[in-house]
Amino acid sequence: MNRSEFSVLIVDDEPNIRSGLQKGLVNEADRIETAADAEQGLATFETGVYQLVIADVRLGGGMDGIELLGRIRHIDPEVAVIVITAHGTVETAVDAMRAGAFDFISKPLDLNLVRQQVRKAREHRELRQENQSLRTRLADAGELSNIIGQCAAMQDVFHQIRQVAATEATVMIQGESGSGKELVARALHDLSDRSGGPFVAVNLGAMPETLLESELFGHEKGSFSGASRQKPGCFEQATGGTLFLDEVTEMSAKSQVDLLRVLESRRFTRVGGEKLLETDVRVVSATNKSVPELIQDGSFREDLYYRLNVIPIEVPSLRQRRDDIPLLIEHFLQHFCSRHGRPMKQIAPDAMRVLVGAQWPGNVRQLRNLVERLVVTHTGDVIDSNELPTDLQPAMTDRGVKTQPASLSEAVENCEREMISTILAECDFHRENTAKRLGVSVRTLHYKMGRYGLH
After folding, report:
1. Which residues carry this modification: 4-aspartylphosphate (predicted)?
2. Domains by residue range for the chain, with CATH
């Protein structure tokens, strides 16, 4: 974060206090001016630019420090004011805070405490400026159908979407789990001539093979046990619009043949039916796997790949677009604070550095879930780094260098923690699916999550 100029005005009728504070705070501010009474302080403030005013409550002349505080903040509502007094009472403190004081310090002054509060005021101002800058950047950010990104990689994705959206070409979107592939598919739909039609998404990876044919093509009444009525499939539901096939590489060999036949002929029959139905959909698919490798090992048909991959779009991982992380965090903060009725929260600079540097195996989905959790569980206005999950932060020595595991068991635990965290994020924190992927019971997964603090 770039530190902007920080100027301080000290208003006190005691020369020793003015001089002592000016000397004691020389390393805390870029410029320090003093004034002997409220009138002089107000005149000095009106002719200069100050980010912090330190003012005594009892000042010589017709104006006290509380009145000075109110008049200064009327001129500049953003200025921070620290009120000091030798007559500290609860009533005085309440009056000062009601008038907008940043803090209240009693005499005799503890210079270290004053320095601490001055640093706090400076950090608070810089944090506010950084968040305002983020909001401005967010407002100006390249945004396409709820996809946010300013980095070059995302701008390239936006360019491809705009080029392809108006066509009827099939598109295959590739990228890691949680990177936003469905958002890209929705953007393709929203910007197409089919935007007035339905957008139907089906997750093929979560669909049992026995139900997949019926889900895609529909079924007739009585075609199998439990088929009590005719049901249109996704190809019918998406007529005139877009059909999004997520995790398309999870299809069985038979389902791949069925899908290829429909893509080639634009016709299909419902399960248990005989009538050929025409399909009028634009097909967009997505996968988080390397399709050429799947073709090589024989688990995915090459001819189907060429049908689906007429236009490829690669969505970058969050690690490849770290410059967008502050923008995404600001967007999610605004969204979830509004959604859950919470006051707007801010991310402290040390926490933002951790978030920007984290590995994010679950990509934007993982970041979104974390921000929502922080909004719901954090009671303060500013979220610090010590309130972030420990698995986001690399182990550090006192010198700020990553430490090596102290033992083989620690290395194994670190690897296990990272693997569970990664698979959890990829499965959108669905415990049954995560346990299945890891080859353990749900009970074992629950124990491990508790042990590693992954709840």
Report:
1. 56
2. 7-138 (3.40.50.2300), 150-314 (3.40.50.300), 319-393 (1.10.8.60), 402-455 (1.10.10)
